[in-house]
Automatic annotation (TrEMBL):
Belongs to the OprB family. Residues 1-21 form the signal peptide. Keywords: Signal. PANTHER family: PORIN B. This is Carbohydrate porin. It comes from Adhaeribacter terrigena.
């Protein structure tokens, strides 16, 4: 019944937007011809011109349905498989066009997770599918994952220099925008290790409230500083207890470069939180072995530092091509279950000349557990002392049309639990953009 209600709500919203756009007069005399069914960006096209009119008035819309099927084909703790998925809605409002408030923007996003639980049985500490743990790890869960307002202050528009201040509710995965990785599990890699440094998970929750400052050069962030509520609020507003348990904050710097005549980028970041933790405290993105065999006192001041590198090897244009990437990160072993993390890989788009839009990726990641955690668990239960986790992933994202994408994915995991054999996890993703 809940699914039917939400479908009716979405269709009602769709027709309401279409009616609104049709009522707004358009100053353009003749709109450009729309692409045909197989070449349009969304399955539903431009809604007879209504979507185009909305964009001219400052309203951008995007709807995505991603479905997954994954299984443990061999190794791990047990053979299993799961079907699940996610429906996402994205609305961006340019208040300069809508209300005359120049350089103001509102970002509003929702996510509905559905289907079976997150695939288990690998014996690993980190999830094999990032998308289906947000906003929940099982069942049907709806959440407003992003609702924030941003004000830009131009410094030099010709050179793309601006200062941007933003406040509200964020899905932190939406803020990770990279050419070769990230994507929240619905665009590129499935596994969470390839998307961002796992060491930062103790200080930065998936969905929470806060504010950020950014200095942009050439239209891209150069310096950033973020302040966040340290508690995860994936399924609640979180406003009544804002910063009740402390604060998480951290600066970042992004340095563009040219190596071998091709685009590269270096970034450094750190986060620290005043909230008190132990390595065994729950993190929604990590399957923490436990409970501890002896009591551990919670400590504040948990920290992490990270470095990331990207280098185009083949560059056909802006964000067109493929190359190398790497991440290295360290964290406080007294509060974080993961104290060292590294990943290296290759990815991008256009591996084959006749398939310029297809995306691909191949990556290896190393995840080391805190010694404080490893030394304080029941060894018999896990088959001995926990091991560092090794994980490799290969994917190819086939753009059959601009709105229909089919992805094949294969993961090889050396789990943290000694009693688990190395696991082979094949999977598929089908995405439709409306």
């Amino acid at each position: 019944m809940k699914r039917i209600t939400w479908l009716l709500f979405l269709f009602a919203g769709f027709f309401a937007l279409q009616s609104f756009a049709q009522e707004v007069p358009d100053s353009a005399s003749v709109p450009p011809p729309e692409p045909d069914f197989w070449h349009q960006e969304g399955l539903t096209g431009h809604w007879g011109g209504a979507r185009t009119k909305l964009e001219k008035k400052g309203v951008e819309t995007e709807f995505k349905l991603s479905q997954f099927y994954q299984g443990v084909a061999s190794g791990g703790l047990e053979k299993s498989s799961e079907y699940n998925g996610k429906f996402q809605t994205i609305f961006k409002f340019d208040l300069g066009k809508l209300a005359g408030w120049k350089f103001w923007q509102v970002d509003f996003r929702t996510e509905t997770r559905f289907g079976g639980p997150m695939l288990g049985g690998t014996g690993a500490i980190s999830p094999v599918n990032t998308a289906v743990i947000i906003p929940g790890a099982k069942g049907t869960v709806f959440s407003i994952t992003s609702l924030n307002v941003t004000k830009a202050f131009p410094v030099d528009l010709k050179e793309g220099k601006l200062i941007a201040i933003s406040a509200g509710r964020y899905n932190l995965l939406d803020l990770l925008v990279e050419d070769f990785f990230t994507g929240g599990g619905t665009e590129k890699f499935f596994h969470i290790a390839q998307i961002g440094p796992l060491t930062v998970l103790r200080q930065v929750p998936l969905i929470t409230n806060g504010a950020s400052f950014a200095y942009l050069r050439k239209g891209e962030p150069f310096l950033t500083f973020t302040v966040l509520d340290p508690n995860d609020h994936s399924t609640d507003a979180g406003l009544s207890e804002l910063f009740a348990d402390g604060v998480s904050a951290g600066p970042g710097i992004y340095i563009p470069a040219k190596h071998f005549g091709k685009t590269a980028k270096h970034s450094f970041g750190t986060f620290i939180t005043t909230k008190k933790y132990t390595p065994f405290d729950e993190i929604r993105q990590v399957l923490i072995p436990g409970p501890p065999i002896r009591q551990i006192e919670k400590k504040g001041g948990s920290w992490s530092v990270n470095y990331a590198f990207r280098q185009y090897l083949v560059e056909r244009g802006k964000k067109e091509g493929w190359g190398l990437f790497a991440q290295v990160s360290l964290a406080d072993k007294a509060t974080s279950p993961i104290d060292r993390f590294a990943t290296v890989g290759i990815g991008g788009n256009g591996l084959f000349k006749n398939r310029p839009h297809d995306e691909f990726g191949l990556a290896y990641s190393y995840t080391n557990l805190s010694e404080d955690l490893k030394d304080n668990i029941e060894l018999i239960r896990h088959g001995g002392k926990l091991l560092a986790e090794h994980q490799a992933e290969l994917f190819y994202n086939l753009h059959l049309t601009p709105w229909f994408r089919l992805t094949g994915d294969l993961q090889y995991i050396r789990p943290t639990r000694p009693i688990a054999e190395p696991a082979l996890v094949p999977g598929g993703r089908l995405q439709i953009r409306f």
